[in-house]
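[INFO] parsing input record for DUF4349 domain-containing protein
[DEBUG] input buffer:
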Amino acid sequence: MITKFKIGGAIMLLTLTVACNKKAEETYAVKNSNYEVAVDSASVEEDMSSSAAVEDKNSKRKFIRTADARFKVKDVAQSTYKIENLTKSVGGFVTLSELRSNIIENDETQVSQDSLLQTTRYEVNNTIALRVPNVKLDTLLRSLAKEVQFLDYRVIKADDVNLQILTNELSQKRNANTSKRLENAIDKKGNKLKDINDSEENLALKKENSDNAYINNLSLKDQVNFSTVTLELYQNEKLRYEMVANEKNINAYRPNLGLQIWESIKSGWFIFEGIIAFLVQLWPIVFFTFLAWLAFKKWKNIKKVV
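[DEBUG] output buffer:
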């Protein structure tokens, strides 16, 4: 009896030891999993940003910054709304939002004689183009990390256009000085119409070049002040189920045999009625035929008597 008690106690102690070890392993696994998730989120945030997206306030250079990224999200529509609101919150605006559902496969399964289960496998994606203040580009990209489940790629460019802007400004000044000299020359030519026309054309060309340089500079400064961000969002494929009528199976709508027999009896009766009605319409022919037969019979009897 004592031996059995010792064996039972040993078994119970071993069971408790294994259970505690298993619980400890599960707790460690959960903690380790949470740590990995936190590391992944931080890693995505770092991947989404770059020093090329940061504005250096002490630098005199002018950069046109653009960012292109493609990543997977949990729900494209919900992420689109969040990104658009985030863009608005940093002082930017959306120039394109092209939300699409692309059907990959359609399948139909017959569930009854007159019904089909239509299964549609599709994917949802969206292409978004944003313009955000240059100084908020890095903030926007880091905020997008919350929506990213898998990052396909991220490309950030910073093109230095400082010299190009300076070139346009110098071109404007040069054309302005030339235009003034041409205007003075035109005033001094008096009535020499041909020389005046040539000078006027030259002056108009100089002013046009000056205007083009001015507009080009405005465009460059706008691109410097507002960065362009292009995002491609996608998610896991989805399935959609819908019950539809089985239009191909006409036999499913045929009546049963009893109803077909009853309909045949009614159709036959209608035909019989039609025949009777047609015969009634022939009564004049029958009547005159009968009179002709009586007359012929009477004439034949008279002839026999004679």
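[INFO] The chain has seven helices and six strands.
[INFO] shutting down worker
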